[in-house]
Hints:
Structural class: alpha/beta
Oligomer: single chain
CATH class: Alpha Beta
Helix content: 25-40%
CATH architecture: 3-Layer(aba) Sandwich
Amino acid sequence: MQDLATYRAHVNEATEFLREKVGGDARIGLILGTGLGKLAEEIEAATIIHYGDIPHFPISTVESHHGRLLSGKLGGVPVLAMQGRFHLYEGYDGRQITFPVRVMKQLGVETLLVSNAAGGMNPLFRRGDLMLLTDHINLQGVNPLTGPNADEWGPRFPDMSEPYDRGLRDIAEQAALNRAIRLQQGVYLAVEGPNLETRAEYRFLRTIGADAVGMSTVPEVIVGNHMGMRCMAISVITDECFPDSLEPVSMEDVLAAAAEAEPSLTAIMRAVVEEIGK
């Protein structure tokens, strides 16, 4: 792991690079994980910057993640959008995964909206459902705040009693209701991956209180809270993880389920952005 001084210098360098390219008007940041790729097409007059062109930015290695930063307007509201994210299973550490969140905050972003793909363990969930995160459990074995704390970024011991902002969740609920979209709610559990879980693991994870399981989001939300950002996240339930009727799942299955849910997820996220931007 890099020392804090070097890491902070790299964040500052990336921030200044992007400030020259995209300015600092955006107050809303989006992490467009699985299920939100189409939303990028609705961002108007977008400036597109590939991650590889940004100093010290990680590179997406997952095929379904484009690896681009978009700056433009969604529904008339300035946004910064990450089209693709990073994961521990790619070999990155907690600081690298959350590097873009630090940069977005320093560019003026105050609200972070996140999407992901997850396996549904709640028996009421079905493939293709959307789940609004109400809380999370971190079983990744990593915390992005480990090591010396940068006091100018946030407190040494940040409170996590409400990691997913209640006000933002209310907006998302109303947006789904207005559009007759079924929006489940529940607890997201993050593991390292990249393998999917065994039957015994699904039973265990469900027993300890999780409704869905995935391999992302939690590090970004921890850092978002650390830096005083309002956070909201929605999962696409891409497979049904019921131990007694478990079926093999391929990446093609996951992407197909995400594609089916994409219009509904896009509609909710766009409505949230528009409401915040009023």
